[in-house]
Design brief:
By secondary structure, the chain is an alpha+beta fold. The protein is built from two helices and four strands.
Length: 104
């Protein structure tokens, strides 16, 4: 599956559009990671626990988006974007979306 943030795939021609595909996941913070993040906030630096949590969420959302595109018969998703939103205290949704297409 070809994924790109561009409106098309360089060197390829879009021959069929399927429309919007998306994948999402909702993740909650972990109390242990919150404690470590609070301590890290005091001294500064990367909050690795949250970095890992977001990376896992992005990967899961992208895989779900790819699965939806494959079910439609697409071989590429163009104009891929990410969005986040808070759904409850301590929980957030990560959404990956784009346009499913067939390129030749």
């Amino acid at each position: 599956m070809i994924l790109t943030t561009l409106e098309g795939v360089p060197g390829r021609r879009i021959v069929k559009h399927f429309g919007l595909v998306q994948g999402s996941t909702i993740r909650a913070k972990h109390i242990g990671k919150d404690i470590l993040a609070g301590l890290q906030n005091i001294v500064g630096g990367e909050l690795r626990g949250y970095t890992e949590l977001l990376q896992e969420a992005r990967n899961e959302a992208v895989q779900r988006m790819i699965q939806e595109a494959r079910q439609l018969g697409a071989n590429a998703v163009v104009n891929v974007r990410f969005a986040t939103s808070s759904v409850a205290p301590g929980a957030a949704e990560l959404l990956a979306y784009g346009t499913a297409v067939v390129v030749e």
